[in-house]
Every structure is written in C-alpha cells, then in structure tokens.
Design a protein that fits this description.
The chain has helices at about 1-30, 45-95, 110-120, 130-145, 150-175, 180-185, 190-200, 205-225, and strands at about 120-125, 125-130. The protein is an all-alpha fold. It folds into two domains: about 1-80, no CATH class; about 110-228, no CATH class.
C-alpha cells in the first residue's frame, strides 16, 4: 500500500510539472494584444481564458510539489519496512534450511518465502502444497493485471485475502498466542514487516514440538547404552 502511494505521488508530481510546462507553453503562444481572437472575440472570454491558463499552471505546480513531498517523506518508511521484512524472512528461512533464502531480499517475490515457511497450507480439509508458487504467481498477476478495471480489482482482492491467510498461518506457527492479533494488525500498511521481524528468532511450533520429543528419545537411547 505504501509503495503504491509513493508511485501515485511521483506520478502526480510528474503530471503537475507537465501541466506547469504546458501552461507556460500555451501562454507563450498567445501574441500580445490578440487574446480576444482565441475566444469568441470577447474581452471577458479572453480574461477567462488567461485565468484558466494561470489556474492550470499554479494548480499543476501545487499538485507536483505535494506529490513530490509525499513521495520523499514515504520513501524512508518503505525502505525500513523492506529491510525489516527481508531480514526477518531471510533469518527464518535460513533456520529452516530453505533453499534460495536470498529471495527474501527481492521485492514482491518475498511472498514466495512466506509460502515456503508455511507449506503445505492447510485450510480445513483442503491442502495447498505449492502455496509459495501460488503466492509468487499472484504477486506477478497483481503487478501486470491489477490496473485492469474489475478484473484487476478481483485479482488484487483474492491475492490480498490469500496473503492474509498465509500470514495468519505464519504467525500461528511462530507465535500462536498472538496469531489473530498479528493478522488483524497486518491489515494496516507497514505493520506486517515489523511483526515478521519480531518473530524471526522464534522456533516454529512444529519444530519446537519435535525438539522437545527428541531429547527424551536421546535420553532413553543413552540409558539403554549405559545399561548395556
């Protein structure tokens, strides 16, 4: 969401500068003393035309400045969120010995690592074995098709819902007591990277249960060896 805001702000800034430049160009093309010839031959209409040009110029400057200021202010926030999410997912992937953990540092495709951490995704009796591939393909679909009216909105909504479910499963594995709360907070732009970074050093529930079982087995085997 924040990335889209920055892109829109930069687009508004560029559009504003284009309006500004075009306004100056149009105003420069009107010879002095001939303004009335460009407007129904009326002095009032000529004044209105000049006022419209000035409005376009100052409006373009205002839109451009506001867009650029918003983009500049949000850029550091986006970089911080990117680093938190990348470092968090990379650390979790390395601890799980997931191949190509460096993908966590590739924007957009970070969702692939999220999928790898929760595979297979179980929804009731349904099991999705390749959720990492589905999330990666969904992210690409949103980039290239998300701008389409209706279809793009449906694709974006479906991807967001699937990503939210995937995040819930991730939180459920690493912080079961906070899974619901963290999922709700993840709806707020910029909070999901912070939450992922917070749980990066925790052991997943399945792994912790396995680690708790192994020591008892080891102790039994050691006891048997010592008795022999």
């Amino acid at each position: 969401m924040i990335k889209k805001t920055i892109i829109k702000s930069l687009f508004a800034g560029i559009l504003g500068l284009v309006f500004f430049a075009s306004g100056i160009f149009v105003n420069a093309q009107i010879p002095e003393g001939t303004e009335g010839q460009f407007s129904w031959g009326s002095e009032g209409a000529a004044v209105a035309e000049e006022a419209g040009i000035l409005g376009m110029i100052f409006g373009g400057v205002f839109i451009g400045l506001v867009g650029i200021i918003i983009a500049v202010l949000l850029l550091p926030i986006v970089l911080i969120c990117y680093l938190l999410l990348a470092l968090g997912l990379f650390k979790m992937a390395k601890k799980r010995n997931i191949e190509n953990a460096w993908i966590a540092f590739i924007p957009v495709f970070q969702v692939y690592i999220i999928g790898k951490l929760i595979e297979p995704l179980k929804l009731g009796k349904t099991e999705i074995p390749q959720i990492s591939v589905i999330l990666g393909a969904g992210a690409v679909a949103v980039i290239f098709l998300g701008w389409l009216p209706l279809i793009g909105q449906l694709i974006s909504l479906a991807f967001f819902a699937l990503l939210l479910v995937s995040l819930y499963k991730l939180y459920e594995a690493y912080s079961p007591q906070n899974a619901v709360l963290f999922t709700v907070l993840s709806i707020i732009p910029g909070l999901a990277p912070i939450l992922v970074f917070v749980i990066r050093n925790k052991e997943p529930q399945a792994a912790s249960e396995t680690s708790q079982e192994n020591p008892s087995q080891d102790q039994e085997s050691q006891g048997e060896e010592s008795s022999e």
